[in-house]
Amino acid sequence: MRTRVLTAVMLGAALLVGGEGNAQQPAAPPANPLDVIPDKMPFNNPYGPPISAQRAQAAIQAAMAEATKHDWPLNIAVVDSGANLVAFLRMDGALLASIPIAEHKARAAVKYRRPTRVFEDAVQKSDYKFILSLDDVIASRGGIPLIEDGKIIGAIGCSGGAGSQDEAVCTAAAATINK
Known about the structure:
This protein has five helices and four strands, in the order H-H-E-E-H-H-E-E-H.
């Protein structure tokens, strides 16, 4: 019995001494990733002048060409840097319920200056449900900012397919502007 008590006391003393050595170590990173403070602002592209109707139509045509290539009937919306609708196309046979969703994806992408996939990943992969409490967020991929000369001039949103299809079409269209 004495041996057990002595062993317990020795282990406790060793833990205390070991704990003091660890106290001099640099602080461990926060347990909660949300507590990490980035050095730079993420997604900090400044807003630029609004996309012109002609360029918005060109983005719509590029998106439609990509969607047609795969036989994916989609709704496609382009908003300007102020989140105002500039151009819209509902492809033949596109899902009616997806009309406002395409617009919502474009608005969220421009307002938050990031692809809507970021919100989807935050909710699905990181379980950050608080994202859903932010105004005008849509946690579904398929909204991508349109950037020219480092400035956001608008965004494109697609809806009507699987999220990966919506995103692929928007990415192809954004590539015609994001150079």
